[in-house]
Structure prediction request, 414 residues.
Amino acid sequence: MHAQSLTAAAPVAAPALAARRGGAAELARLLQAARRDTLATFAAWRAARPALQVPPRAELNPPLWELGHVGWFQSWWLARFPARALGPRADPDGPRLAPLRDGADALYDSGRVPHDRRWSLPLPDAETTLADLGRGLAQTLDLLAALPADAGDEALYFFRLALLHEDLHHEAALYMAQSLGVPIADARWQPQPLPEPPPPLRLPAGAWSLGSGGEAGFAFDNELHGQAVALDATEIDAQVLRWAEFLPFADDGGYDQPHWWSDAGWRWRQATGRDAPRYLRRDGGGWLQWRAGAWQPLDRRLAACHLSAFEAEAWCRWSGRRLPTEAEWERAAFAAPQAFSWGAVWEWTASPFAPYPGFRPHPYRDYSAPWFDGRPVLRGASFMTQPRLAHPRYRNYFPAHRDDVPAGLRSCAR
Prediction:
């Protein structure tokens, strides 16, 4: 069997295709749409926390820093970067033009500003930051308008990167809001019930071309370069677990029984004191969920969410199942696009985040290479993810202990 690769028939939804393959006019529209969502979510933060203060925790960033960083990043790689037309071939250490605001690099460069210092930086106030964002976006749109109608992938590379980077930070703003009880009213970012689990998918043994192999359009550097991998026959869940499938593990005392957990997972369980998933608590014989700062009856039809990789692994051991590898996940998404449902939550896999053979870092050096440390890969997307970012080749990655991220799981037969 020949390795399969991405084709025009592959299950890539229109928003993701537009972000990765759209021309200058389409990107101008998308960048403005992304900014509207960024500002709307920031307005929700401001309404709930007028002082815009958050506790200094590893999983959070000050909202004003997040907002300023999004605008800084866009200008750093576009308006200030003369080599932008070279796309992935550009030298990231080449000359830069001056920022819109003096000292911006010392405030917003995430690669050089330690996380714990972001709470003590002399950040501009909200109105100044919003004005800077508006000026920066105007510069970006002017640059797009100056491109020829047939501008190619290299010329558009950094516009696409800036768009998807803003989308990533928008999702982070949403799950930080969940963490701190900031209500988000927009229905687009709310979870939706899932149906009863369909029968699992059974895929035969064969070769699969994992990753992007040089197709037209944008790809993140960690998606390159496609490699043929041999896969055994696989039985994989057709959709992610709902609370209806996950909570019997907790009701069975799974959080108190170390034999279901890895050594690292049990250490996490003891250190955190978790006796239930984050944002859930028992209420008599039932469960409540904490959302928008209030405890609400849990809809068990919702995807099990805000689970650490340790909890996903423990459930699999308890149920006699296992997590899929990212290659198994990707093959199922492409081989059975009508039956393989994804996008409700990010999905933990059994694969460590590592470079594919032939990996070469793109100019945004901080995106992938610093994180090739064995943390798990997550695949798919979540209800908090901008649809533009939801691509079946996309590789997300977080440390196994993170349970603030909207992540869950699907499983495979052992």
About this structure: Residues 1-9 have pLDDT under 50 and may be disordered.
